[in-house]
Automatic annotation (TrEMBL):
Keywords: Cell inner membrane, Cell membrane, Membrane, Transmembrane, Transmembrane helix, Transport. The lineage of its organism: Bacteria, Pseudomonadati, Pseudomonadota, Alphaproteobacteria, Sphingomonadales. Residues 16-398 form the Major facilitator superfamily (MFS) profile domain. The keyword Acetylation does not apply. This is Bcr/CflA family efflux transporter. It is found in: Cell inner membrane; Cell membrane.
């Protein structure tokens, strides 16, 4: 049984936040650092259809979605730290294996395995934070984590581009492996076990199914969980086709890393702002306001795709604003969906991460594969995803927006044996 060391007696909340951010940043690096390398990877892996290179991202996300179901129950039984260490070291090995993939088929298998192992970073970061905080306090920490995490998309394509200046695209995977090893050493030396002994849950399929059932049947948890996945799907649709849009639509392939950074700065700033205002105004008020803005900007994107289809400045302004809204939506929706589940944080986080990632990866792949040399598919995707997410929020809140409930819904007790 793991021993529980309160964070304030060991590494402190600030270092914990930075550590958790670094772990999540490994996943962002695994997606964004390789975007500038897409043309070289198309040639190097012998692809005849350029859109297929997007599956390098989609298959990784599919792995993280499926892997999310594994690590919550394991960490609820054996503790957060040992499972995290095994997964981070495994992801380093898988990343190294990707650098040696001889063809596209082997690359896809290795990327799936990489995602399967990297899933632990997303699930267990949320579980560790939920072990220590709840409600708006949790939302603040999660927003701070997402802020640090979002620095990576700002610089990751530039890192990838720098690697390409001096070496081949395979070295990008070697670099990711080295960073994972460094993170594992930090976790081993400094992270205490945050799972309290009284919250240890044996791995029993029946009890696990009951935990998932409680999540699904909780109106707010289910709605906000699905809504978060859908809005993130719009973001993944943009990520999948981002390099192609800069190259084929705007004839600005050399500007890609700068343009990508500009858009990423928007979501980083929104996460920073959210971390400062969410405890004052509440996660619901902030995220719902952002969602309405997200829809309005999506409509403007669609108009711009029709009347100014090749204007890079308009594209950057609207997309930066819309991606920024995801900074307010993602962490707050996730915090609302997790609030009732302190007693089964691992299982709940696992299941919710699986649903969010599966939805986002599927929608992102669908949107990305629609790329036809225009920005219309991405603009249409943002608007549709926003409208569906709003419908879910209205269902959760029974038609009332901008509320701030003082308590969470009571939940049935889930047996531990």
């Amino acid at each position: 049984m793991p021993t529980h060391s309160p964070v304030n007696e060991s590494i402190g909340p600030r270092e914990l936040t930075v550590m958790m951010s670094s772990l999540m940043a490994l996943n962002a690096l695994a997606i964004d650092a390789m975007l500038p390398a897409f043309p070289a990877m198309v040639r190097g892996l012998g692809l005849s259809e350029p859109n297929h290179i997007q599956y390098i991202i989609s298959i990784f996300l599919a792995g993280t979605g499926i892997g999310a179901l594994i690590y919550g129950p394991l960490s609820d039984r054996y503790g957060r730290k040992p499972i995290l260490l095994i997964a981070v070291m495994g992801s380093a090995i898988a990343s190294l294996a990707c650098s040696f993939a001889p063809d596209f088929e082997i690359m896809m298998i290795m990327r799936f395995v990489h995602g399967l192992l990297a899933a632990a970073m997303g699930v267990l970061v949320i579980s560790v934070i939920r072990d220590q905080f709840e409600g708006d306090a949790m939302a603040r920490r999660m927003s701070t984590i997402f802020l640090i995490f979002m620095i990576v998309p700002i610089i990751a394509p530039t890192i990838g581009q720098l690697v390409l200046f001096f070496a081949g695209w395979r070295v990008i995977f070697d670099l990711m492996a080295c960073m994972a090893v460094a993170a594992a050493i930090w976790v081993y030396l400094r992270l205490p076990e945050t799972l309290a002994p009284e919250n240890v849950i044996p791995i029993q399929p029946k009890a696990l199914a009951k935990a998932w059932k409680v999540v699904v049947l909780n109106r707010n948890a289910a709605g906000y969980m699905i809504g978060a996945g859908i809005t993130q799907g719009a973001l993944f649709g943009y990520l999948n086709s981002s390099q192609q849009m800069f190259d084929k639509v705007f004839n600005a392939a050399d500007f890609f890393t700068i343009g990508f950074a500009i858009i990423a700065i928007g979501i980083a700033m929104s996460n920073f702002t959210n971390s400062r205002i969410v405890e004052r105004f509440g996660a619901r008020r902030v995220s719902q306001t952002a969602l309405l803005t997200f829809i309005a900007l999506g409509a403007l994107q669609l108009l711009a795709a029709r009347f100014a289809p090749t204007s890079l400045p308009i594209f950057l302004i609207l997309l930066t604003g819309n991606v920024a809204m995801i900074g307010f939506i993602g962490s707050n929706f996730s915090s609302i969906a997790m609030s009732p589940f302190g007693h089964v944080a691992g299982a709940a986080s696992s299941f919710q991460t699986f649903v969010r990632t599966a939805l986002a990866a599927s929608l992102g792949a669908i949107i990305g594969q629609q790329f036809d040399g225009t920005v219309y598919p991405v603009a249409f995707g943002f608007l549709c995803c926003g409208l569906v997410a709003l419908s879910l929020v209205l269902w959760c809140e029974k038609g009332k927006l901008f509320t701030r409930p003082g308590t969470t819904q009571p939940l049935p007790v889930i047996p531990r044996n």
